[in-house]
Amino acid sequence: MVKRTSFDKDDCPIARSLDAIGDWWSLLIIREALFGSRRFGEFQKSLGLAKNILTVRLRALVDQGILKLAPASDGSAYQEYLLTPKGRGVFPILVALRQWSEEFDDHPEEITTILVDKEKGRPVRKLELHSQDGRLLTAADTALKPRPDTKPSRKLRSISA
Predict the structure, then answer these.
(1) Residue 49 · residue 25 · CB < 8 Å
(2) Which of 93, 17, 26, 85 is nearest to 59 (CA)?
(3) pLDDT tens, 10-21?
(4) What is the pLDDT of residues 86-142, one digit of tens each?
(5) How far does Cα 25 stand from its chain's mean position?
(6) Where are the alpha helices (DSSP H) in the chain?
(7) What is the CATH number of domain 7-87?
(8) What are the extents of the domains in the chain?
(9) Closest CA to 28 of 47, 10, 15
(10) What is the DSSP secondary structure assignment for residue 106, as one 8-state letter?
């Protein structure tokens, strides 16, 4: 596998997160884990991913603390991959990606599922960013500022739409 640049020491949290979950297979593995997949064979079957690539991605997700290995819940000799709190924290990211695709996909009619609230059976609302006082924010309403306890290594800037 080609060695890629690591962003784990970058001062940008977006770059750091991409280091952990920035390839499509990792995000799809996490999606499948959220749907209930736990065993290697379940991931392999649902994703159609080559076993060697799946092995590398699962190991990386365990190393990143996104998945953990546990004895199989049925008492067999197998091990299962379980989401950690860090892994479950990816859920809103996947929802945001899904909603972005639903809004901007060239062929939305080909998307065969909708995300619903299990209890009510209704579609979930679009994710929104709100200020601490509840105002709806856009990119133009935000800026980066230095943390009081760190020295930034790059010029800070606004995010503009």
Answers:
(1) yes
(2) 26
(3) 788 888 888 888
(4) 999 999 999 999 999 999 999 989 999 999 999 999 999 999 999 999 999 999 999
(5) 11
(6) 13-21, 24-34, 40-47, 51-63, 85-88, 91-104
(7) 1.10.10.10
(8) 7-87, 91-134
(9) 47
(10) S
